[in-house]
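Students often ask why we bother encoding 3D structure as a string. The short answer is that it lets us treat folding as translation between two languages. Here is a chain of 595 residues written in the first language.
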Amino acid sequence: MCGIFAYSGSKNNAGDIILEGLKSLEYRGYDSWGVAVKTSDGKIYLEKHIGKIGEARYRTVSGEAHLPALQSSIGIGHTRWATHGGVTEKNAHPHTDCHKKVIVVHNGIVDNYEYIKNKLAKSGHKFFAETDTEVIAHLIEEKMKNKKDLKQIVLESFKELAGLNGIIVFFPETEQFFAIKTGSPLVFCTNNNEQLIASDAVALLPYTKKVYYLEDNELLQISRKTFYLLDENRKEKFPVFMKLTMNKGDAELGKYSHYMIKEIWEQPAVLQNIVNGQHNHIQKGAKIIREAYGTFLVACGSAYISTVAATYLFSKIAKKHLNTSIASEFSYLEHFIKEKSLIIAPSQSGESIDVISSIKNAKEHKAKIMGIINVLGSTLYRLADYCIPLNVGPEKGVAATKSLTAKIVVYYLLAHELNGTYKKGVKELTQAIKETEELLKKHKKIKELSEQLKNHKNLFILGRGVSYPAALESALKIKEVSYIHAEGLAAGELKHGAIALVEKGTPVIVYNPQDETYEDTLSSAHEVTARGAYVIGVSNKNNQVYNEFIKVENCEEATIIPNVVVAQLLGYYLALAKGLDPDKPRNLAKSVTVK
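And here it is in the second language, the structure alphabet:
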């Protein structure tokens, strides 16, 4: 959560550079944002605003100029997802000490901030915000009373912070940055006398193709035109920069209105790339699974739902059982992990804190770790023993789309590789991808359906077999971006409670491919129809029980892919029909890096 960006260089438009960087990071939080720069005449301008950055006009404190127009070559910025303290201007970052000699931006949670705050208040420090971040600036200020070495002051202060945190400390007088983290990601690049730090490499794409991911407890010191890195043992270290596989254009909207619809339409191409180009990775991954003594999938959100799909795919195709756990619950279930256990962790960002914590715990049990990751160089990438790259490009919409279907493609190929039927899997996936292309061409029908559904408060999605995780993901996608309460159900569970909520006009989406689940799922459709439901059938075969019908050809178990895309489109168009921004749904952020 939260996006951090810092710039020091030779250009005189630091404010502009920082604002553009924050826009690239806004998917990490958009409750508020702020920027602090030191101008060429030595003044400090600090701006904070509530809400999204958008196309707002930026003012100075005096109201005399726009921030991007100021002559400045150094500064920091932050876009916030609120944890401690309400969504107010005073709680927006950056935060300062009493005399504005220390400016801090922060991602994480200081677990012991109340203790530190009370201690500093007794020493005369005045606090203006409710957030935990403000105590960091004052703690550093307090230590500056007796010490001069800024590096040592930052290290000592950071050591006192309990929890997982990433901070950048800006000292305007000396024009220095110090960056340090535990858990929360920080990425650094240097290019032509410019030094930049961000929470995500995507914000650095306009400036470089090579980045360095800070390790926990490393200290990065940036001065004009130079940088200095200390490892966790406080020995000097030269960073090994990693080449980025994504391009600047991949992270831009282009002809699309929103990132979500752009990323939905990109799916056929990125999925076919995985099918065509990942066989070596799939072979190695399958070998690791084959040799493991117990395989466990650990993930969050849509990635977790993808692991539910994986259990069906591996059972049906490879006759192999996999265990799956929500990452935030894994610490209560990890006691059975052994040295030969395998943990598979799918993650778009590679930074989800619950996944990282689970992986670290599993490594303590000497388990082997396999990541299925989109962001190479991320924390999960560095922790894993082996990684299968998704290579879907930047995914900036908060709601997962192409990264979710890409994970399912990887599971599908792994299962067929284990079964010795890889070519069959490729054929079925290629058919499913073509069906997805055809479905996208019919998007206007789904757009029209969204107009019929936009005023409903509740919606149910039913499926059996591999269509059950499709129902789960569909419900998540719809409620994420349209704020309609949607519930995905195994169709056989309908009579065990949820049918009590079905009344006249209640929309019920039924995933019903013509496979072994067809007749039983059709019976469930009749059951909700008898209670007055408005039934939307998604199948290769129409039936009179459906009030609306969306045709999706049967592609064996790979039908889950176009089925999920139906819900992605429906969620997107429902958001538009309700006047909502599908890229920035309320209260959500894409990369969850705090517990």
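Translate back mentally: The mean pLDDT is 92. Keep this in mind for the problem set.
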